[in-house]
């Protein structure tokens, strides 16, 4: 029975976090299958690789350090943040650079999904290992659900944001931002593990994560707001050029786009996706160079052609 309770306590809150993270992006929501792909890497792939790499480091470290308490602290405070964030981030790096990146919020969503997946599996293992005392188990469930799992989400989402920002901007920033992002992610993880490893600094760790969560929400909201601004500014130009009806601009950049009656229901989602892609590609043209710039320019014209043909067919 306690095993089922541990599973439920580990899984259901994280699923709610994941859905909130995904749905928070109101203007250019990612396909949920991609979010799940990153989530499952976090809860399965990254856990397996982390255990293998940690075992390797633990084996050699134990030869030098025989004091078990000291060894555990080194593994928790030093090795765990570096190994876990690197393993989680490796898949994120490959995934983001293998797909068309449109904005920073994508990196936040995919990184957060990996972090939540890892946190869910780690929580489950911790819950199972502390079933001897029900009160202790409840305390661990509360602390790890409200703090540890979200710490993983925030840390890896930070790295994701840096990758997304780098890819969106390009140039020198593309080289520096990911290194800064992974360093911040490791520091967040390191400071949490350091503070909660000792009773005297435990509350400092909790306060630190709360601050990180607040900063994360503010930055994520800012990224979404900037996304809305980009879509509005780019599409208003298209409206003045006669491509899109002017009254569609406020609809496309608000929750009104989900309402019925303003566009043909069969083509509405396709129209929204094409219009948003057009806006984001136009923004990317301004910062891209060389091959990427030409690629984005072609996509801009392709989106325009699609929208023209769509309106032409609907007006026949």
Summarize the structure.
The chain is 83% helix and 0% strand.
Task: Characterise this structure.
Helix 3 runs parallel beside helix 5 and helix 6 (173-196) runs antiparallel to helix 7 (202-240). It contains ten helices and no strands. The protein has two domains: 2-224, no CATH class; 241-315, no CATH class. The protein is mainly α and 316 residues long. 83% of the residues lie in helices and 0% in strands. The longest helix is centred in the C-terminal third of the chain and has 39 residues, at 202-240. The chain is elongated, with a radius of gyration of 23 Å. The mean pLDDT is 90.
Structural class: mainly alpha
Q: Level of helix content?
A: over 70%
Beta fraction of the residues? under 5%
CA distance, first residue to last residue: 64 Å
Quaternary status: single chain
Which regions are unreliable across 5 or more consecutive residues at pLDDT < 50? none
Specify the number of helices: 10
Q: Averaged pLDDT, please? A: 90
What letter string, H or E per element, gives the SSE order?
Answer: HHHHHHHHHH
Radius of gyration: 23 Å
- Main sheet makeup: none
**Number of distinct beta strands:** 0
Number of domains: 2
Q: What characteristic shape results from the CA principal axes?
A: elongated
């Amino acid at each position: 029975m306690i095993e089922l309770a541990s599973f439920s306590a580990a899984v259901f809150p994280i699923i709610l976090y994941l859905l909130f993270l995904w749905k928070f992006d109101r203007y250019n929501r990612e396909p949920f299958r991609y979010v799940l792909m990153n989530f499952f890497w976090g809860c399965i792939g990254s856990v397996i690789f982390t255990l293998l790499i940690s075992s390797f480091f633990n084996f050699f470290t134990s030869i030098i350090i025989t004091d078990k308490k000291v060894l555990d602290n080194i593994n928790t405070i030093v090795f765990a943040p570096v190994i876990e964030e690197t393993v989680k981030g490796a898949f994120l790096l490959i995934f983001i650079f293998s797909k068309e990146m449109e904005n920073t919020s994508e990196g936040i969503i995919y990184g957060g999904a990996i972090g939540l997946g890892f946190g869910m599996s780690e929580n489950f293992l911790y819950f199972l290992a502390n079933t001897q005392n029900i009160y202790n188990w409840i305390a661990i469930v509360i602390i790890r659900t409200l703090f540890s799992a979200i710490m993983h989400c925030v840390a890896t989402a930070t790295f994701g944001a840096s990758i997304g920002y780098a890819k969106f901007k390009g140039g020198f920033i593309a080289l520096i931002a990911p290194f800064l992002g992974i360093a911040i992610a490791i520091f967040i993880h390191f400071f949490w593990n350091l503070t909660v490893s000792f009773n005297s600094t435990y509350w400092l760790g909790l306060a630190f994560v709360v601050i990180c969560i607040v900063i994360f929400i503010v930055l994520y909201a800012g990224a979404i707001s900037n996304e809305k601004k980009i879509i509005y500014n780019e599409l208003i130009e298209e409206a003045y050029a006669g491509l899109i009806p002017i009254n569609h601009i406020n609809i496309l950049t608000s929750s009104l786009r989900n309402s019925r009656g303003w566009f043909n229901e069969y083509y509405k989602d396709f129209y929204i996706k094409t219009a948003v892609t057009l806006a984001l590609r136009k923004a990317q043209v301004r910062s891209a160079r060389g091959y990427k710039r030409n690629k984005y320019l072609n996509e801009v014209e392709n989106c325009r052609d699609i929208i023209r043909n769509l309106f032409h067919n609907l007006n026949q």
